[in-house]
Amino acid sequence: METKDQIKERLKKEYNTELTPNSDFTKLPDEILANAHLYDYGDKVSIQSNVEMSRRLKPAVQSLEKTIVNLDGKNEKLQKRIFWLTVVGVALAATQIVQVLEIVKSWLK
Q1: Which helix (H) or strand (E) holds 52?
Q2: Membrane-spanning residues where (predicted)?
């Protein structure tokens, strides 16, 4: 398990920033920010990390909303098609009932 100092050095090497209250949090990846409270550098770091994660989450949620609206529209179109195909299927089945009854009568004779 890494110590706080090892984590600090690794972040400095990999991302050219530290997980400290005065560092630039925008350079750190989501998984580092999401787990900032585990590094125990203090409440200020944890709060700043949460703010940054919230900032990053907003566009993702907006994109998800757009996708859901788009899928809802496609779903409605698909439901209409299925409905009309069902109506056509029932109409075709209704026209075949007379012929099927005649075939059944001929088998029973």
Answers
A1: helix 43-108
A2: 82-101
